[in-house]
Structure formats: C-alpha cells, structure tokens
C-alpha cells in the first residue's frame, strides 16, 4: 500500500513537478511505530538493568560513590531470571523491528528532523550507561586487565586468575568466567583506556566499570557523528546515516549496553576516512591508531589502500601514516600485544555457523584438527563471499563527490564500498563472531545507498544478540538454560547459514526483488545488479 496519498507542488512555481508527501497509512511503514520500537528497546534495557544484579545484569560489587551505574539497592528486589531474560529478548526484537519499520518509512519519503533524531540516539546511548552492563561480562575483564597494569603487571603475559587465586584483590575478585585465565587480546590503546579507568575508579569495580562504559559510549557517539558529518549535502543520506548509526537500537544494545570497546578503534578509523580525499598521511594515522585499538579494523586499512591502488604516492603516504602509531604501539611499547591479539582467530563462537560444523568434525577428528578444518573453510569462505559481494553491492557515490567525477576513481567511494564488502565477508564467514563486531560493517553501510545488505545485516545481528542472553557463565534454572542454549547453538547458527545463503542467492540472481523492500526503485528500472551501469545509476 502506498504511503504517498497526496501530491504537493512547490510554492511559487505551479509548473514544477508534483512532490510526494509522506503520509503513512500502514504501521509497518509508519515512522512513529519505528521510533516507538527504538525507544522501547532502550526502555526495556534500562528496566532490566535498574532492577539490579541478576541473570542478565552484572554484579559490580560495593558502590562507594554516586557515579552510575545506578540500580535498586541490594536486597530490594530479587529479579526473576525468566523475567529479566524475557525483557532483553523483547528489547532486541522490538529494537530490530523498530529499525526495520523506520527504514521502510525512510524509503517511503519520511524526512526526519536530523538534529532531533541524532539527539534521540545520543540520549538513548547515554541513558544506557546509567545502569550496569548487561549479559556480557567482558567489561569486567577490561577492568581486570587495567587492574593488572595498575599493580605493575603485564596483562599480555599474566592472567587475572594468576593473581586473585594467590592473593586477595578488591577488583579482580569480581571478574567472571570464562576468560579469567586468558591474557589480554586487545591493542595497546584499548589497554591504556583500561588502565585509565582503573586510575579514575581506584579499587572499586563499580566505579571502574562506569569509566569503561563512558570510554565505550563517547567513542561510539563520536564515530557516529563522523559518519553523519560525512553525509553532508544530502538530507536523505544524512537521515539514513543517523538512523543506522547513533539511533540504531541493535548497535546501542550490542556495543553500548555491554560496554564493549569496539567503538574506540572505529572512532579512529572513521576519522581516517574523513581525510581520505584530502590527506592520505592523516588518513593513515587514523587507521593506524584504530589498529592500535583493535587489529581487526585493519580490514578498513586494506580497503583504504585499495582505494589508492592507482596512486602509488598516496598509497605510500597512507602506509607511512599507519606505520607510525602501529610501530610505536606494537614494536616499541607493547611487542607482546601483537601476538596476543592474533589469539582471537583460533576460537569458535557458539552462535556462529562454524559451531555446528566444528562439532560435526569432532565426531571423527581431534578438537585441534577439527578447528584447523573449520579454519580453512572459514578463510576460503571469506574470499568466496567477498568476491560475490563485490559483484552485487551497488556502486554508490560517497557524499561530497564533485559533479561529473567518476565515482569508481573516487578514493572515498572505493574505500567505503570495499570496507563494507570486506567487513561483511569477514563477519559472516568468521569462526568467532559476536554481535558487537558488526559495528565495523554498519558504519560504511550507513553512508551507502540502501540495498539488500540492510536486511541481511539486520537478520544477522538480531539472533546473534539473542544468542547471548543471559550470556554469562552463571548457574540458572534448567528451563532457562535449555532455552538459551537452543537459541545459541541452534537458532543463531541456522540464521547465520541463512545469511550466507542470502548472499549466494543475491549473487546468483541479483535482480530478484526484495521480500520487504527498504528502498524505492523507480518504475521500469531494474534493481541494482552486478555492478552494471544501470545499477550504478540507481544506487546514486
């Protein structure tokens, strides 16, 4: 059903062509329902966190200050594990549905007030850190690695468990399984933020976690602001960029609610992209600093280098800029960090496509050999899926491209498209993948035209988020444990296989219409296909 029920001509020019007026007539294309879902997702998250420590809300120890996280005094309530888990499941589903409806409204002509939409997303993100982190205990390990540095230990060579099992420590005692025996796998800049949080929070885990939450949300907001700024000059593109970044409920949940540190590296990487057209050396500094936060952001670095493949001098300047912070961080200051960072590539996450494949191979192979086989499949899949995506992802001119300039020679356009292709290919084929990793794909996605990737990424992140509720190594009731395990080891892997299949089918039949279109295609024009001239025109 069309939502354009009336036509309006431009004032003062009766001869001007009629301009459609956005008039939503069905709920699943109505921006009000979309925004309601986005807000409700955060409201449910806040409710679960404000009830205090539970199956989904972290226990942070004693509160000795008025700093967040705020929650009801201990003993006031005893949150039922089913109730709080259901709240989070509902928050994820409502948030994903709200984003989907808002995207459909945007495609139908909704023109949000951009400052208000950005302010809404910023407010929701800031409110999220007023309660304790939820479902993932990773932030407690961040605090532990910072604590090790504060007491003069090296988090890359010693584990938190080696300390707290031999002596009492007021911070390390609050960490949770299963990573207590694992050295840090984070870049030096991320480690320094963990140390700074310990300096500011002292010996109180509650206060340290607040600073870590702040160090998660501020880079997240800044990275989103950078993406929105890059969409200047195009109100519709800025609206899309705002909706898919700062006002994106699935990202707020995945990154901010768990206080994950992905946003630190993404913030520097976005800053690097902003200089790509003007100063390749500064662009290199940005991506180099990003790599010092988390090495996986190097995917964007490869995309930026590919953008300069026809300009050797700029490519060398980019590499020089990246080499300075990377060399200082990983060679001069923390030489052990680089090798520890590579450890993540050897794990298999339960909610991924790789977990059932790994379990199948363990029936007749050792665990080590099964992991090697799955690893080979993963890397082969990365190249195959990456190639398929490169054939069908539409070419979209990056904002600010001069009129008449060839978008296929514009470094920013090439870098955005390449980073999107590489990021998604890596995310959906990796053995170890989690919902907060998706931040590196949503950022370039937000700057490019709507495509089937919108639905593919939404289909990927929602079940992957559901899979880790409660998501902690805690004892819960048998029924809840069974339910969460089935979501984690059955539902989520099945959907991840469906995501891979969706990419293959898109590549095989690029003109197949979307089941629920999130973009308006002019009548008589085929949808964007295999990087054809018509695909390029429609994407622009």
Question: Briefly, what is this?
Answer:
This protein is mainly α.
Helix % is: 55-70%
What's the total helix number?
21
Distance between the termini: 25 Å
Strand content: under 5%
**Based on DSSP secondary structure assignment, what is the total number of beta strands?**
2
Structure, described:
The chain is mostly helical and 540 residues long. The protein has a domain at 348-431 and 433-464 and 476-540. It has 21 helices and 2 strands. It has helices at residues 31-50, 81-107, 114-128, 138-150, 160-164, 188-201, 205-230, 235-244, 249-257, 262-274, 280-293, 298-307, 312-333, 335-341, 354-361, 367-392, 411-429, 439-447, 452-466, 478-508, 533-539, and strands at residues 6-8, 19-21. The chain has a two-stranded antiparallel ribbon. Helix 2 packs antiparallel against helix 8 (235-244) and helix 4 crosses helix 7. The chain is globular and about 65 Å long. The model is unreliable at 1-12 and 521-540 (pLDDT under 50).
What's the helix and strand layout?
Elements: E1 6-8, E2 19-21, H1 31-50, H2 81-107, H3 114-128, H4 138-150, H5 160-164, H6 188-201, H7 205-230, H8 235-244, H9 249-257, H10 262-274, H11 280-293, H12 298-307, H13 312-333, H14 335-341, H15 354-361, H16 367-392, H17 411-429, H18 439-447, H19 452-466, H20 478-508, H21 533-539
Antiparallel strand pairs: 1-2
Helix pairs in contact: 1-2, 1-3, 1-9, 2-8, 2-19, 3-8, 3-9, 4-6, 4-7, 6-7, 7-8, 7-10, 7-18, 8-18, 10-11, 11-13, 12-17, 13-14, 15-16, 16-17, 16-20, 17-18, 19-20
